[in-house]
Specification:
heterodimer, A: five-stranded antiparallel β-sheet, globular, B: six-stranded mixed β-sheet
Chain lengths: 113, 117
């Protein structure tokens, strides 16, 4: 069974601060995705990383896939209240159905003024 | 419709009753997924449909859970003899296919919040 552990579970910061969320596993994934979920809504895809060591940037968000494709990180620069939400990583298996994702435990971020 | 549509959005039921949750995927999407999310937690895979292939039921937690997909479109998730531990948000998602990412994006509905009392 593939498991994805995220840390921290909760994070409360002030506007303008930087933060990093980690997603770790002992299993290898063919790709890894990051989602953000707001209350009462379904998760929305932010990014997909595929290659070990890959770094992708989405405005103030930087995503990195570990060299061994077992872990990932999400770094937010100068956080804003609009970044508030539940951040989920999700890994795709190296074999079998590519889109049968394993989701992480989630990191709840709150950004205050 | 423009997105994945789920109904009901909220359902309160008595322990022991059966419930049905409906999902209408994005038009043209051949793959459909059901996930369960306990309060503020990550998503737990339940079942997956792809076209006319046999569904992947490996995530269903017990035989009280079943799902069907009629005509390759609408899906219904049925929970029989509900228990309090079934209380969760049930999320449906769809995608164009099942190919590897990043070419295949999964779109989620807003979920059906089930409370068993």
């Amino acid at each position: 069974t593939q498991l994805l552990e995220q840390s921290p579970q909760f994070l409360s910061i002030q506007e303008g601060e930087n933060l990093t969320v980690y997603c770790n596993s002992s299993s290898v994934f063919s790709s890894l995705q990051w989602y953000r979920q707001e209350p009462g809504e379904g998760p929305v895809l932010l990014v997909t990383v595929v290659t070990g060591g890959e770094v992708k940037k989405l405005k103030r968000l930087t995503f990195q896939f570990g060299d061994a494709r077992k872990d990932s990180s999400l770094h937010i620069t100068a956080a804003q209240p609009g970044d508030t939400g539940l951040y989920l990583c999700a890994g795709a298996p190296p074999t079998g159905t590519a889109s049968k994702l394993t989701f992480g435990t989630g990191t709840r971020l709150q950004v205050t003024l | 419709g423009a997105g994945v549509s789920q109904s009901p959005s909220n359902k309160v039921t008595e322990k022991g009753k059966d419930v049905e949750l409906r999902c209408d995927p994005i038009s043209g999407h051949t793959a459909l997924y059901w996930y369960r999310q306990s309060l503020g937690q990550g998503l737990e895979f339940l079942i997956y449909f792809q076209g006319n292939s046999a569904p992947d039921k490996s995530g269903l937690p017990s035989d009280r859970f079943s799902a069907e997909r009629t005509g390759g479109s609408v899906s219904t998730l049925t929970i029989q003899r509900t228990q309090q531990e079934d209380s969760a948000v049930y999320l449906c998602a769809s995608s164009e296919g099942t190919g590897a990412f990043p070419g295949n994006t999964i779109y989620f509905g807003e979920g059906s919040w089930l409370t068993v009392v």
